[in-house]
Amino acid sequence: MLENQTADWRAHYPFSSHYLMLDGHRYHYVDEGPADRDTETLLMVHGNPTWSFHWRELIASWRDRYRVVVPDHLGCGLSDKPRRWSYRLGDHVNNLVRLVDGLELDNVTLVAHDWGGAIGLGAALARSERFARIVLLNTGAFPPWFIPWRIRVCRTPILGRLAVQGFNLFARAALRMAMVHPDRLSPSVRAGYLAPYDTWEHRQAIYRFVQDIPLSPRHPSYATLADIETGLAQLAGRPIQIVWGMQDWCFTPDCLEKFTQLLPEAEVHRLDDAGHWVVEDAPATVIRLIEQFLAANPIPAAEPSLREAGG
Q1: What are the distances in angstroms from CA 150 to CA 98, 178, 247?
Q2: Which end of the chain is more exposed for a tag (fewer CB within 10 A), N or C?
Q3: Quick one: which of 14, 31, 113 has its CA closest to 68?
Q4: What's the first-to-final CA gap in the chain, in angstroms?
Q5: Percentages of the chain per state (helix, strand, coil), in multiples of 5
């Protein structure tokens, strides 16, 4: 089975593991970069059904210049996968806030994809003083006005759960359906995406994320998304970049247009030959665009403390 090709996929993910304890659960994160912990921080936040592995090429590209912090949501990747936990959007946001606080991250550039957009932006609104720049890739941060039929099927109580949690079909399908060029994924990279989701118990977060898409205001996460959408105006003064794979059938170009209305000053790049997993379809282009954005929007140097000023 692909999930068991541990040695192969690990070669793509040569990063040390760190853990934050959250209410008795281990919350895994990568923390790479220079020894100087005062450097700028890139906080990369994944979606579903991925994990921190999704950012591997970006981590490798930037860990020599930036502090790169990349968590796995509870239930995902190398984090614990508790059976009894809410798996609601608001709680994922709270976990990320606790990571930002626990690591005392400042001068943060958020880089977020899929569910990571709502989770990351929720944390940025909660700790706005710590976030300096924002990069969004094929994501959403507002209540959805449509849900693709392929996602709706996965939400059905019996067959959907059996497909997603039992046979891992959601994650397996993403390896092809989330990209325009799925042939660019080697067998070992495919194994890396699937590795943490090797049992029914380990796949519960994938199904719970699908369940957590709110169809109406009665859903517990609808208000959370609505509050994040309303709060986006508070972030409009920061440099914001949006990079979008235009052949995304899930977060369609209509979602991008929604963002351009909510964040009219954002720098927008439309990649015509990329799909939902834009960092897999066009990794070199994404890295180049983000590097240009970071260089064009430097973070002002922090004022020295009184102690430093006094020698």
Answers
A1: 34, 12, 16
A2: C
A3: 31
A4: 60
A5: 45, 15, 40
Per-residue model confidence as pLDDT tens digits over 5-34: 455 999 999 999 999 999 999 999 999 999
State how far the alpha carbon of 182 is from the alpha carbons of 13, 53, 173, 247, in Å: 19, 16, 11, 13
Contact of 63 with 52, CB cutoff 8 Å: no
Q: How far is CA 186 from CA 170, 181, 189, 280, 291, in A?
A: 19, 11, 5, 11, 26
Name every residue whose Cβ is closer than 8 Å to that of residue 145 and which is 6 or more positions away in sequence.
Answer: none
> pLDDT of 151-187, one tens digit each?
867 677 778 888 888 889 999 999 999 999 999 999 9
> What is the CATH number assigned to the segment(s) 2-297?
3.40.50.1820
3-state SS class at 215? coil
Q: What is the pLDDT of residue 215?
A: 87
**Would you give the DSSP letter of residue 55?**
G
State the Cα–Cα distance between residues 16 and 80, nearest whole angstrom.
16
Distance, C-alpha 111 to centroid of its chain: 7
135: β partners: 111, 241
The secondary element (H helix, E strand) that includes residue 153 is: helix 149-154
pTM: 0.93
Length of the chain, please?
311
Could you count the other beta carbons within 10 Å of the beta carbon of residue 107?
Answer: 19
Q: Taking a C-beta distance cutoff of 8 angstroms, is the pair 63, 89 a contact?
A: no
Report how many helices (DSSP H) and strands (DSSP E) the chain contains, helices first. Answer: 14, 8
The SS3 of residue 256 is helix
Return d(Cα 221, Cα 226) in angstroms, integer. Answer: 9
Domain ranges of the chain: 2-297
> In angstroms, rounded to a whole number, what is the distance separating the alpha carbons of residues 177 and 173?
6
Helix (H) or strand (E) holding 87: none
